[in-house]
Design goal:
heterodimer, A: 135 residues, mainly alpha, DNA polymerase, domain 1, B: 268 residues, alpha+beta, Uridine Diphospho-n-acetylenolpyruvylglucosamine Reductase, domain 2, Enolase-like, domain 1, 3 domains, five-stranded antiparallel beta sheet, 11 helices, binds flavin-adenine dinucleotide, binds FE2/S2 (inorganic) cluster
Chain lengths: 135, 268
């Protein structure tokens, strides 16, 4: 994705399936792309962070919530956090407690923020997604 | 990545033929064990046979008194299945404790059992519930299936097709996570079955999953955590590493077994 398609939004953090910086959606479900063989995805739909909102269009509500709530510092973990968060909303709905969000972030590491604002961003983004056409 | 040939069979029979025809071919299901191993060059199979596109191999259903889970059922599917939740809720909970949400979207029960990691969760459920592993060739009882660290009774060209779990009267799984890997530092699955009680321990044994028979005998007389007072699992033969000593693991087995029995009784 990064080298052949030049979709560099998806990050390689650990390359050992621990950090979640590489999370994309495969047939609509969050997966760690560093541990998913591209040939196995042949014939399936892959969505990266670039696919959340069209070029030049307003950001996806989850992206906007991270901006608004200061859910990132260096931003390295952010694409994976956002793709994980969008999947979480698809599975568990728009009203997410801090406890559920923290539990669901099991596979996503951030070395900057201390997670507090990531959790706040996801809670707000989940609510905003209820009012948006962008899934 | 180095080069390998990728095969996408549509049936178990085709997959089996590919394994027979190509020596050193490896099956891949979720890839969440095999891909990391390949990236580290600890394995470099020249042929990969993808099980994930075989229709019906991930079916979850009740067959008589048994819960039958197809080999390529993903951890998230088992965790969220209404059928599993109804028949053996402890098994659904166990699947929901594996790794993280993204891992659960890819990893499969068949892959986990074929790998038989000594700290994996499913082996504890399979051994405690007395499940049967069904392959393209035969049926294997849990006791004969697990054969030590990363080792099973599977032959090189044998494919797990499903796992049959007899429904217990009560069951619970309690996992104490390794803080770094989130695998089980110790995990205990307790099952009260119609004829006996089984306590299976993962994460602790230097030879992989095992049964705590002293606990089983006491619990068979009376299924209450109180009967466990004064009984302990010896530390000999348990893992000792930077995450915990053998004594610590032995202690955890006692604590988690008590909690599992309490949890199983609380489900009434
Ligand atoms: C970050 C991370 C955290 C994890 N945490 C946990 C955890 O907490 N607890 C836990 O139990 N596991 C954990 N796992 C392991 C995870 O559950 C794996 O998915 C699982 O062990 C292997 O399943 P798979 O389908 O991915 O197998 P694959 O990687 O595709 O295959 C594994 C092995 O099994 C063989 N195989 C696969 N399917 C079959 C079959 N049907 N018949 C015969 N052989 C087969 C393959 O040839 C290969 O040798 C974790 C993994 C990761 C990456
Ligand atoms: S790069 Fe995939 S999980 Fe870290
Ligand atoms: S913002 Fe820097 S790693 Fe999360």
């Amino acid at each position: 994705m990064r080298e052949n398609l030049r979709l560099t939004g998806t990050h390689v953090g650990c390359d050992t399936s621990q950090c979640g910086a590489c999370v994309v959606h495969l047939d609509g479900k969050a997966v760690k792309s560093c541990t998913t063989l591209a040939v196995m995805a042949d014939g399936h739909e892959v969505k990266t962070i670039e696919g959340l909102a069209a070029d030049g269009a307003p950001l996806h509500p989850m992206q906007e919530a991270f901006r608004e709530h200061h859910g990132l510092q260096c931003g390295f973990c952010t694409p994976g956090m956002i793709m994980t968060a969008v999947d979480l909303v698809h599975r568990k709905g728009h009203e997410l407690s801090d406890e559920v969000i923290r539990e669901e972030l099991e596979g996503n590491l951030c070395r900057c923020t201390g997670y507090q604002n990531i959790v706040a961003s996801i809670a707000a983004g989940a609510k905003a997604m209820a009012k948006s056409d962008l899934a | 990545m180095y080069e390998f040939k990728y095969h996408r069979p549509g049936t178990v029979r085709q997959a089996a033929n590919l394994l027979v025809k190509n020596e050193d071919a490896k099956l891949i299901a979720g890839g969440h064990t095999l891909v990391p191993v390949m990236k580290q060059r600890l394995a470099s199979p020249p042929h990969l046979v993808d099980l994930s596109h075989i229709e019906g191999l991930d079916t979850i259903e009740m067959k008589g008194r048994s819960l039958v889970i197809g080999a390529t059922a993903k951890h998230a599917e088992v965790a969220n299945s209404a059928i599993v939740g109804e028949a053996i809720p402890a098994l659904a909970e166990l699947a929901g404790l594996i790794g993280d949400p993204a891992v659960r979207h890819r990893g499969t029960i068949g892959g986990s059992l074929a790998n038989n990691d000594p700290t994996a969760d499913y082996p504890a459920a399979v051994l405690a519930l007395g499940a049967t592993i069904v392959t393209n060739k035969r049926r294997l009882k849990a006791e004969e299936y697990f054969q030590g660290l990363f080792s099973t009774a599977l032959e090189a060209d044998e494919i797990i097709t499903k796992v049959m779990f007899p429904v217990p009267k009560k069951a619970a799984y309690i996992k104490f996570r390794n803080q770094a890997s989130r695998y089980a530092l110790v995990g205990v699955f307790v099952a009260k079955r119609p004829s006996d009680v089984r306590v299976a321990v993962t994460g602790a044994g230097s030879d992989g999953v095992f049964r705590a028979t002293a606990f089983e005998e006491a619990l068979k007389k009376r299924f209450s955590h109180k009967v466990l007072d004064g009984i302990a699992v010896p530390a000999e033969g348990l893992n000792s590493d930077l995450h915990g000593s053998a004594e610590y693991r032995a202690h955890l087995i006692g604590v988690l077994t008590r909690r599992a029995v309490e949890a199983a009784n609380a489900k009434d």
